[in-house]
Amino acid sequence: DINAISSATSPLEKLQWEEFAGHINLVSASRVLIRTGDCRLLLENTSAFWTRNARSTPAAVVILCNDAAVFATRTSGAGLRQHSVIALRGARVSDMNDDGDYRNLVKFQGCNSSVIICCDKPSDKSMWLDQFQEAIVNAENSYEHENPDDLQVTISVDLLDT
Fold it and tell me: Which InterPro entries match (predicted)?
């Protein structure tokens, strides 16, 4: 919707309309953007199309909000495509040791999936560890979304339409 794009004022609205072309529902009354950043992703779910044994890892963007982390990959155009959404309530973050060619690793684990973030520098790794941990603690203290699965559904949009 061209009117939505031109009237986007918040950072989440801009992401939703300019980067995702409206194919994701990032905006809600209580959702606050904490940070976005570039990284590479490794998934531990062997049924996913990228695994820890993959030769290359996709360039990705992490969108950390006060209630969820959205992981997106770059499209061949200039936009983003949702890869996964993990609710912060019940999530854990941990520091991982370097693993062969993979360095500066942070593991982010939700109720149903986990993602390993490959950061470019040790300082990026430290920043993501701190930001995720603080966001998780704050989300645990908030009772806005009782069920993490419900939150995931409110953000995700049917990707068959894209």
Answer: PH-like_dom_sf
